[in-house]
Amino acid sequence: MESYNAFTKRKKDLFGIFDILAIGNGETVAIQLTSKSNMSTRIKKISESPMLPEVLRSNWRILVFGWYKKENGRYDYKEFEF
User: Left, alpha or beta for 16 (phi > 0: left; psi -120 to 50: alpha)?
Assistant: First the structure.
């Protein structure tokens, strides 16, 4: 749940680590979107977050999607799940 603070002109992620929170069918999924080249940085940031143990105890799925452009010009993604 990324939000935008117009006063500071900055974006703020949910718990400082998630862009999107999806809820449905008895499941909660927290998602971080980034470039493929920046995935390891985001995975490390989530791994070091003090919120991670609580989120995992709550049975949330945590996904990191890294987007990249293929040689044919189309975009694809790599997925990592905690």
Answer: left
Tokens 């799940």 correspond to 81
Domain boundaries, the chain: 3-81
DSSP output for the chain: --EEETTTTEEE-BTTTBSEEEEETTEEEEEEEEEGGGHHHHHHHHHT-TTHHHHHHTT-EEEEEEEEE-TTS-EEEEEEE-
pTM metric for this prediction = 0.82
State how far the Cα of 58 lies from the Cα of 36, in Å rounded to an integer. 27
**Cα 21-67-29 angle, rounded to 5 deg:** 20
Average pLDDT over residues 11-35: 91
